[in-house]
């Protein structure tokens, strides 16, 4: 009996342990679900915009090379960068070509691979000396194969201030002088200029200019004081006048002095791109006559006339 009871108890214990084991053991069945994500296109981006060589533009210089460089990044790779260009402008990104205010690349911008996702872009602009003075901007642009684009960064540079004139003189009566000399020809002592000489003042900078005028005595066998030379604006008709040191040469002959006199309303504009050439565009003339005092010794006389351009 005891043996049978023990076996029964043992069977109950084993059964209980088996049930407990089953409680901790589960059967799992695996299943899968697909995942998807659509990554939208991001436009290429521009950075590191730089302008170089603008500050070295000089007076009466044509086709001066100005360079704008920038970098482009495209997450889809270098090959996805479709276009990269720029304009160099004082008047805005979309302005029309104008040698005073707006330049397009010449030739087209170059694009070279900088990395698997980047391009280095170099744009050349051939700028003329009369490009208007002010703050200019490089306006870069890039797009990818889908047409997404970036044009937000810019870079600015101020043009050099070019206040420069050239002088082209004439012989008496208006004949052309190949140089810039003011040649009064041959005048006897006690006589005066019969006709005016002219100096053509040519603006070869990018600013409106006024002028400062001074001159030395004419020296040779003797001395002819500079005040015997008089000038006024454009036309000097009639007899040679004594003039004065205080005259307004807009209307009356003024005596030439050794100290510089400022003609503050000369107002010679800078050249516009519509001018056919610098000689016929931004120019003004000054008329000159000389009085040779009685008793002046015969001979050749010379001196120096100085005309300086100043920002007007």
Q: Indicate the low-confidence ranges by residue numbers.
A: 171-178
Task: Tell me the number of structural domains.
Answer: 2
How many angstroms does the end-to-end distance come to? 134 Å
Order of helices and strands: HEEEEEEEEEEEEEEEEEEE
Instruction: Kindly name the structural category.
Output: mainly beta
Largest sheet: 5 strands, antiparallel
**What is the count of DSSP helices, taking H or I runs of 4+ residues?**
1
Give me the Rg, rounded.
42 Å
Approximate strand percentage: 35-45%
Mean pLDDT: 88
As an assembly, this protein is: single chain
Looking at the structure, what is the overall shape? rod-shaped
Approximate helicity band:
under 10%
Number of β-strand runs: 19
Overview of this structure, please?
The structure is a single chain. This protein has 312 residues and is mainly beta. It folds into 2 domains: 45-158, Immunoglobulin-like, CATH 2.60.40; 165-311. Helices cover 7% and strands 36% of the residues. It has one helix at 2-24, and strands at 45-52, 64-73, 81-89, 102-103, 110-113, 118-127, 135-144, 149-150, 155-158, 165-169, 197-203, 209-215, 218-219, 223-224, 229-233, 254-255, 261-268, 283-290, 305-311. β7 and β8 form a beta hairpin.
């Amino acid at each position: 009996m005891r043996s049978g009871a023990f076996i029964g108890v043992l069977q109950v214990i084993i059964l209980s342990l088996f049930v407990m084991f089953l409680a901790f053991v589960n059967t799992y069945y695996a299943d899968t679900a697909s995942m998807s994500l659509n990554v939208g296109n991001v436009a290429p981006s521009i950075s590191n915009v730089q302008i170089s060589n603008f500050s070295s533009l000089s007076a009466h210089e044509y086709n001066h090379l100005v360079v704008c460089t920038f970098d482009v990044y495209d997450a889809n790779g270098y090959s996805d960068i479709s276009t990269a260009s720029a304009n160099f402008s004082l008047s805005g990104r979309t302005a029309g070509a104008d040698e005073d205010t707006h330049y397009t690349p010449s030739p087209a911008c170059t694009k070279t691979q900088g990395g698997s996702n980047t391009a280095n872009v170099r744009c050349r602009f051939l700028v003329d000396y009369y490009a208007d003075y002010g703050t200019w901007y490089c306006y870069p642009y890039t797009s990818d194969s889908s047409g997404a684009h970036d044009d937000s960064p810019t870079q600015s540079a101020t043009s050099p201030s070019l206040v420069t004139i050239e002088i082209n003189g004439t012989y008496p009566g208006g004949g052309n002088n190949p140089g810039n000399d003011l040649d009064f020809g041959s005048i006897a002592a006690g006589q005066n200029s019969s006709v005016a000489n002219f100096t053509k003042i040519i603006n070869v900078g990018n600013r409106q200019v006024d002028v400062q005028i001074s001159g030395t005595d004419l020296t040779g066998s003797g001395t002819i004081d500079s005040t015997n030379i008089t000038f006024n604006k454009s036309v000097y008709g009639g007899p040679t006048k004594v003039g004065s040191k205080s005259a307004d040469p807009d209307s009356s002959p003024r005596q030439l002095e050794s100290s510089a006199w400022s003609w503050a309303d000369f107002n010679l504009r800078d050249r516009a791109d519509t001018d056919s050439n610098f000689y016929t565009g931004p120019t003004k003339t000054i008329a000159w006559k000389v009085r040779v005092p009685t008793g002046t010794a015969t001979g050749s006389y010379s001196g120096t006339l100085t005309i300086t351009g100043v920002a007007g």
